[in-house]
From TrEMBL:
Record: residues binding CoA: R200, R201, G202, N203, T318, N342, S530
PANTHER family in alphabetical order: ACETYL-COENZYME A SYNTHETASE, ACETYL-COENZYME A SYNTHETASE 1
Modified residues (N6-acetyllysine): K616
Designated name of the protein: Acetyl-coenzyme A synthetase
Lineage: Bacteria, Pseudomonadati, Acidobacteriota, Terriglobia, Terriglobales
Length: 652
């Protein structure tokens, strides 16, 4: 168990408050009572395939399935033999079905510019851009990397790929050129869609410059399409780079959606694991469509006149599932915002809620804690009475932040859905259904219908209620990842082998006597820093790539605002001397190697790192040191007993 979440665990262990769904909310909700949820849950558990087939029937299929699930653990095929297209389900279905002039996206740029795209307008843009891709020679099955900020052209590019069957891979705009190289190379992308720059806190994030630098090392990329956002000066490489607007001006309007096999890969999204190499999580067409559609509708209780705002960046899975594919499939109106929450002032999010009359708001605990620190006066400046439901995602939410969210943002009126899931699961797995399930601050409550979750020992035995253990999922579900791109063995080994026969999430959890799940955080070497998922190994690899660094060990430590902070222990090559300047140099180095979100919060120089006799770094000890505590527990395997004492001295 990572000690980094101990403060959260301590507080949630004492949490007894419970909030029933407001009667008025339940009356209008898709699922109206605990009994209704329990009935549905049982029905789905008894016949999962029948349950998911019923959900799938609400979507459009060019060709029906012959079998709902083919399960040869850990290899799943959902909706076998069926053909569908996500872009069709997100667009054509609504344009043909009465939502032609409904707003799909209400977008606001950081400088305050606003654009609304109706379903029909989005449909036209997507068809044109699909033709742009085809005109460039991009084919079904090709991989297209997308490195953009939060502009409507980002979902347009994703949906255009989905329309022709190209597999997209969105790379978060905060990643560095080096991180781009790794991701583009791993998937052998043939094209990159980007933009000149993106606005963030009044500054320009120079995306095209990073692409230029990366592509010097990426020979597979033949084309770069550049959307003009900031109009800053950039280089355009003859023959390789094309302006978005030039290609769109020439593209034809009409591009029918390609019928794709249900298992056709929709996207690859890289996420951090326990090794230095990021994993390309593969999601496919049919199952992902069904999972994101169902969860968006049920968890956010979306109705025809809702305005949904998920504040995530589309560069992460939350944006894929709950800005793009889930809300568009349900025919919702979604708000999309380009910039920072504190620009020009600390009330920007609340100004957006008030201006666009947001009804359902979905954000991360790290943001909520930041808003708490800034103070209630900022939300209180605005009329946010349209809000009716609040959501949280990405990390354990401490009860204090949960209560603040409920009181200050939700005015005690709005239920909160604390949604647990992962890049790998594709869609929400454990969450309240807001009209049905009473909430407890800090608990993600119960698994959704169709999801069989359990807390078990290493050997796979269910732990007694109330005890901590490993969170596993016992049955396949439609939106599950299918593999790690190019590395099926790693998929099998990493997720399905640690605990026999089940999907291991990497999280620790506890189930209470009411069947509520309390997620305690990662039990592996994955860090969760401000909701960003980072690998200790990846940061270590970045550090040791620096010429002055001999060895590095990275651990997480609890941080009140960020959830976890990154603590690095570094030994230097002989001849290099520790200094505050070198610390800064190393922090900047990590930002360049990975991205600024991975910068160590603290760096400690040390002569040696504590290791077992077999040479493994003893992270538990380092975590305890990073947290400032005494070193407890068994240290008898330490190779050199003096190391701990030495590290503690170094700290003083
Ligand atoms: O540790 C869990 C935490 O975030 C991890 C997944 O990170 P990522 O793949 O980046 O996806 C984040 C958005 C879905 C999980 O293994 N996590 C996510 N949601 C919660 C959470 N921890 C506690 N409570 C949650 N609601």
């Amino acid at each position: 168990m990572s000690s980094a979440t101990h403060s959260n665990i301590d507080s949630i262990l004492q949490e007894n408050r419970k909030f029933e769904p407001p009667a008025e909310f339940s009356r209008h909700a898709h699922i109206k009572s605990l009994e209704e949820y329990e009935k549905l849950y049982k029905q789905a558990a008894d016949d999962p395939e029948g349950f998911w087939a019923e959900v799938a029937k609400e979507l459009h299929w060019f060709k029906p399935w012959t079998k709902v699930l083919e399960w040869d653990a850990p290899w799943a095929k959902w909706f076998v033999g069926a053909e569908a297209n996500l872009s069709y389900n997100c667009l054509d279905r609504h344009v043909l079905g009465g939502r032609r002039h409904k707003a799909a996206f209400i977008w606001e740029g950081e400088p305050g510019d606003v654009r609304t795209l109706t379903y029909q307008q989005l449909w036209l843009e997507v068809q044109k851009f699909a033709n742009v891709l085809l005109d460039l020679g991009i084919k079904k099955g090709d991989r297209v990397a997308i490195y953009m900020g939060m502009v409507p052209e980002l979902p347009v590019a994703m949906l255009a790929c989905a329309r022709i069957g190209a597999t997209h891979s969105v790379i978060f705009g905060g990643f560095s050129a080096n991180a781009l190289v790794d991701r583009i190379t791993d998937q052998q992308a043939v094209a990159v869609i980007t933009q000149d720059g993106s606005w963030r806190r009044g500054n320009e994030v120079k995306l095209k410059v990073a692409v230029d630098e990366a592509l010097e090392k990426c020979p597979t990329v033949k084309h770069v399409v550049v959307y003009k956002r900031t109009a800053s000066a950039i280089n355009m490489k003859e023959g390789r780079d094309h302006w978005w607007h030039d290609l769109m001006a020439k593209a034809k309007d009409h591009c029918p959606a390609e019928p794709l096999d249900a298992e056709h890969p929709l996207y690859i999204l890289y996420t951090s694991g326990t090794t230095g190499k990021p994993k390309g999580i593969v999601h496919t067409t049919g199952g992902y469509a069904v999972g994101t559609y169902y969860t968006t509708k049920m968890v956010f209780d979306l109705k025809e006149d809702d305005t949904f705002w998920c504040t995530a960046d589309i560069g992460w899975v939350t944006g894929h599932s709950y800005i793009v594919y889930g809300p568009l499939q349900t025919g919702a109106t979604t708000v999309m915002y380009e910039g920072a929450p504190n620009f020009p002032d600390l009330d920007r999010f609340w100004a957006l809620v008030a201006k666009h009359k947001v009804t359902v708001f979905y954000t991360a605990p790290t943001a909520i804690r930041t808003f708490m620190k800034w103070g209630a006066e900022y939300p209180n400046r605005h009329d946010m009475s349209t809000l009716r439901l609040l959501g949280s995602v990405g990390e354990p939410i401490n009860p204090e932040a949960w209560m603040w969210y409920r009181d200050v943002i939700g005015k005690d009126r709005c239920p909160i859905v604390d949604t647990w899931w992962q890049t790998e699961t594709g869609a929400i797995m454990i969450s309240p259904l807001p009209g049905a399930i009473a909430t407890k601050p800090g608990s993600a409550t119960k698994p959704l219908p169709g999801i069989i979750a359990e807390v078990v020992t290493r050997a796979g035995e269910k732990v007694p209620l109330g005890s901590g253990g490993f969170l596993v999922i016992k049955k396949p579900w439609p939106s599950m990842m299918r593999t790690i791109y190019g590395d099926p063995e790693r998929y099998k080994h990493q997720y399905w082998s640690d605990i026999p026969g089940v999907y291991f999430t990497g999280d620790g959890a506890r189930e209470d006597k009411d069947g509520y799940f309390w997620i305690m955080g990662r039990v592996d070497d994955v860090l969760n820093v401000s909701g960003h998922r980072l690998s200790t190994m990846e940061i270590e690899s970045a550090l040791v790539a620096h010429p002055k660094v001999a060895e590095a060990a990275v651990v997480g430590r609890p941080d009140e605002m960020k959830g976890q902070a990154v603590s690095a222990f570094v030994t230097l090559e002989s001849g290099s001397k520790p200094s505050p300047e070198l610390k800064e140099e190393l922090r900047a180095w990590v930002a360049k190697e990975i991205g600024s979100m991975a910068k160590p919060d603290d760096i400690r120089f040390t002569d040696t790192l504590p290791k077992t006799r077999s040479g493994k770094i003893m992270r538990r000890l380092l975590r305890e040191l990073a947290t400032g505590g005494d070193v407890k527990g068994d240290t008898t395997t330490l190779e050199d007993f003096t190391v701990i004492a030495k590290l503690k001295e170094d700290e003083q």
